[in-house]
Amino acid sequence: MSTDQMSWDAAVRHLYRDAYAYIATGPRRHADWTLDVLALMARAVPDPRGWARVDDAEEASERVENPTWPFAAHSREYVVSRLREIDRDSAENLLLALTEGGCTLSNLQYFIESPDELRAMARTVLARYGDEATCRTNVSKTGSAPGTLDFTLESLGYSPMSVFTEDCGLVVVSDTEVGLFWNFNDL
To answer: What are the residue ranges of helices labelled H in the chain?
Structure first.
């Protein structure tokens, strides 16, 4: 499956319209992809294709003192130690769970589209990065098989990356691009 700018932009803008989100893609410039993630968190790189970016904190006054806000300024070691690899199906579910605070799939009931239509949007988003892209997250679900996130399980854990009480995200890494999909929730 491939995607184009119009379908990707429409999917991103629709899925994250009610989230307090940061959705951005940057170029993959380093063998160590975490350096590219840090550049995205700092808003230091543009989207290499000029496609949509969602940055609900773009105008926040806190960014004057901390340009990475709402992300906390972290070292490469901090970031890499908190992101674990997940499979593509789990990444698809996570993209949907990130559409609202709480990181669950229960929020899908608030969309007018069917779950299948929403999953098609998530697949459109992931298609940008190609079939060989790897996916990583700071989210865990106790009881999930290694490399997966089982959203039928109640437990939610995460390794914080921001100044908020809860933040959940997905990093998608291809040979040429790095995508960052994050939702912030101040409980």
So the answer is: 5-15, 33-41, 76-82, 88-97, 115-127
Determine whether 154 is exposed, middle or buried from the number of CB atoms within 10 Å of its CB (0-12, 13-18, 19+): exposed
Q: Residue 1, exposed/middle/buried by CB under 10 A (0-12, 13-18, 19+)?
A: exposed
Structure tokens at 56: 């609900």
Roughly what angle, to the nearest 10 degrees, separates helices 115-127 and 5-15? 130
The residue length of the chain stands at 187
Kindly report whether the global pTM for this prediction surpasses the value 0.85: yes
In degrees, to the nearest 5, what angle opens at C-alpha 41 toward C-alphas 3 and 136?
60
Strand ranges in the chain using DSSP code E only, listed in sequence order = 21-27, 54-55, 84-86, 134-137, 139-140, 157-158, 166-173, 177-185
User: pLDDT per residue over 48-83, tens digit each?
Assistant: 999 999 999 888 888 888 888 999 989 999 999 999
* 172 three-class SS: strand
